Amino acid sequence: MAAPRGSPCGTQSTPSAGGLADSSLDGHLPMAQLEEGSYLCEIECTVTTGLEQIAKEEAERLAGSRVSAERGKIAIQLQNTNALKLLSLHSVDNLFVVVGRSSVALSGEKKSDLIQVTKSFLHADWKRAVDVWKCFQPSPVEHDLECRPMDSWTRSEMCSLMLNTSQHDAASDQPSHPLNFPSFRVSCHRVGANHSFSSVEAAGYLGAAVSSYLGWPVSLRQYDVEVNLNVDNCLVCITLTLTRASLYRRNIVHFGPTTLKATICYGLLRFAEIEDGEVVVDPMCGTSAIAVEGVICFPGCFFVTGENYPEAIDRSYQNMQPRGRPADVVRWDACHLPLRDQSVDAFVSDLPFGRRVGSRGDNRRLYPGVLREMARTAKCGTGRAVLLSQDTSAMSAALKVTTPFWKRTM
Q1: Which of 87, 90, 244, 314 could hold 266 in an S-S bridge, CB 3.0 to 4.6 Å?
Q2: pTM
Q3: Spatial CA neighbour of 230 closest among 240, 220, 238, 222
Q4: How does residue 149 score in pLDDT terms, banded at 50, 70 and 90?
């Protein structure tokens, strides 16, 4: 039997190297002419590790602007009037508008370092960031934002504020604020082992500064704006959260115990390089998350999914019904597919990890049978398979016994 081309892949995929400062120079797209009254804004998007390049390429096609990538996220520079387009990205989980970035000199003394980190927000353009945030809200927002000019903020004022205000004071002893001012909370995320302060302390200091200078009231639960303080060693970035719920939940109605995120499903389908008119099969579909994403993003293909558990079949039908696109859900044994020889263009599947479903022992018997059956039904020369598994030992053993049929490319 001629060997189909395959590409099983695991969760250990290595992301592309690069940073927000310089990776945008590699093949970036020219910036479009700004419209009158508009301005450039920067949107950060969180991405599943290993899928950064796919997210970058998708964002470049959609936004037509500069996109940089680093581990777990991408950053997009685009016109503020086009920011809402990013909600249609299939490869990103959450969106944040960047308020400002800065590099700080940390001395190792707690209060001094906290003041330095908090001062970074003086260089931020809160007015524009909040305007972008308003565009992402489900209903019109009339909150006011009054900022003191940056050149009027003195070091003595900041030191006085920081040395006499704590997070507890800011949250529990709020001055009266106009009702049309947005409430907020601060979340701090740190990377690096040499910080003299904790995340809670940094969030408290920044929260006190925002409350005092912008006039926003603190609300840790019923908040309008979530301010994020990201400290990466000596680099400080402040963002506002644009999406309250992660985008990976948007296409699935009924979840199962191992339902795959829609953003990961999209990445697997992109790895398969499927084209219009091809037949794509998920032999162990679970709740058909891959097929649901496939019929939305690749409407020119035909998707066939199957499972051996009745409950999973029911959930798959419920998830597929609202789509109205070419797809089929079948109950079958993945090791004995009711498909003709050389009839499938691509297999895309999330294999059992042997934790929530099955066991590692089961995988050592399941994986070889599945790969053999895929080899029988895949088209010789052009057939391929993109498989996600965390059970690397079972996958390696299965690939050894099916070497005549598959060539590993990832």
Answers
A1: 90
A2: 0.80
A3: 238
A4: very low
Residue among 185, 172, 163, 44 nearest 109 (CA) = 163
368-373-376-378 Cα dihedral, nearest 10 degrees: -100
Residue 159 vs residues 164, 201, 239, 303, 340: alpha-carbon distances, Å: 8, 15, 23, 62, 75
Which token pair is 211? 């409350």
Choose among 254, 251, 297: nearest CA to 272: 297
Residue 191's CB is within 10 A of a number of other CB atoms, namely 10
Helix (H, G, I), strand (E, B) or coil at 35: coil
Does residue 234 surpass a pLDDT of 70?
yes
Distances (CA, A) of 29 to 56, 66, 86: 12, 6, 17
> How large is the average pLDDT for residues 28-38?
60
The DSSP letter of residue 90 is S
- Average confidence score pLDDT of the chain: 81
404 contacts 371 by C-beta, under 8 angstroms: no
pLDDT tens, residue by residue, 112-148:
999 888 887 777 788 899 999 999 987 766 655 555 4
What average pLDDT score do residues 335-342 get? 95
Torsion angles phi and psi, residue 36, rounded to 5 = -65, 130
Q: Quick one: which of 253, 301, 293 has its CA closest to 275? A: 301
DSSP class per residue in 286-311: TTTHHHHHHHHH-TTSEEEEEES-HH
Q: Provide the total of helices (H) and of strands (E) in the chain, helices listed first.
A: 11, 12
Highest average pLDDT, of 12-16, 57-61, 218-222, comes from 57-61
pLDDT digits (tens, 9 = 90+) for 294-319: 999 999 999 999 999 888 888 888 88
Checking if the pLDDT of 348 tops 60, the result is yes
Which residue blocks in 84-231 are alpha helix, DSSP H?
A: 110-119, 126-135, 155-164, 167-172, 199-214
The reported pLDDT for the residue numbered 144 is 56
Please give the Cα distance from 139 to 389 (Å, whole number): 41
- Residue 171's pLDDT is 42
> What is the rounded distance in angstroms from the CA atom of residue 154 to the CA atom of residue 152?
6
CA atoms within 13 A on the CB side of 3: 10
Question: Which amino acid is it at 309?
Answer: Y
